[in-house]
Amino acid sequence: MAAKRKQGAFLIALMLGAGLVWVVxxxxxxxxxxxxxxxxxxxxxxxxxxGNDGDSFHIRMSDGKVRHxxxxxxxxxxxxxxxxxxxNTKIKRLxxxxxxxxxxxxxxxxxxxxxxxxxxxxxxxxxxxFTVFTRGExxxxxxxxxxxxxxxxxxxxxxxxxxxxxxxxxxxxxxxTDLPDGTTNADQLRRLQGLQKSAKGAKKSAWELASTPxxx
Length: 216
Prior knowledge:
two-stranded antiparallel ribbon, alpha+beta
């Protein structure tokens, strides 16, 4: 009788174990940053790609995967008047970017976009590695995800989106967020506005072009 009870208990345990394995194997795959917390990836590197831009680039993360990132808070001008498969040329976006940057012409706006692209490539290449913070939030259906980049600059760690505004290479635009260091979205926007005001006063990049008579 005791032997039968042991055999029954063994069979029940075996069935429960098999059920647990099935549940674990069939759990939905956890998405990057699920739960609203930032995930930090150290020692990331820039991956050369023709689609890289001032605010959007391909990055090899510390997990070995290459992801297409889009910065929070800022929008660098388009670096070319591109024609896409759906017929979109980003003309309206360039016009909006130029108007924000003190009424720059399309040609001048594209020039700022090219400068931003070159500047970011140089910074990230010379830095050799940097830290990416992301929740895996998708940028519409573009295949890109929003991120923050912490990079060595000027003897300390800086946020890349702040540097772009500080250098007059991007407008304050697109999705914002509270930062991993506890800075609120509102406080970060105020800081960016201060950096932009300083860039205007120093006539950096876009703001230098905006002060020229022909703005070309």
